[in-house]
Amino acid sequence: xxxxxxxxxxSSHKNLIVRGDKSNKAGNKKxxxxxxxxxxxxKTKIGKVNDVFGPVxxxxxxxxxxxNVAGENLRGFKGKHVYVK
Length: 85
What we know:
The protein is mainly beta. The chain has 1 helix and 6 strands; from the N terminus they run βββββαβ. The protein has a 6-stranded antiparallel sheet with strand order 3-4-5-2-1-6, with no helix packed on it. The relative contact order is 0.34. The mean pLDDT is 85.
């Protein structure tokens, strides 16, 4: 698994906003794909990449969280790394 980035905050619509890791530059196209599965540090599926935006050298990702992830758990992701395969 590779680090997608760090969770900056959550939205009320069960989305996570993730600041991409410095290694997620344009040359690494696989990380930029919409619908890539996103995992927590325990390798549990938490959602899918919904959108990619911001600068190319350090993009931001919107991650649509799966329904089975409880709302109170979303706050626990803030400041943590999330991953993709």
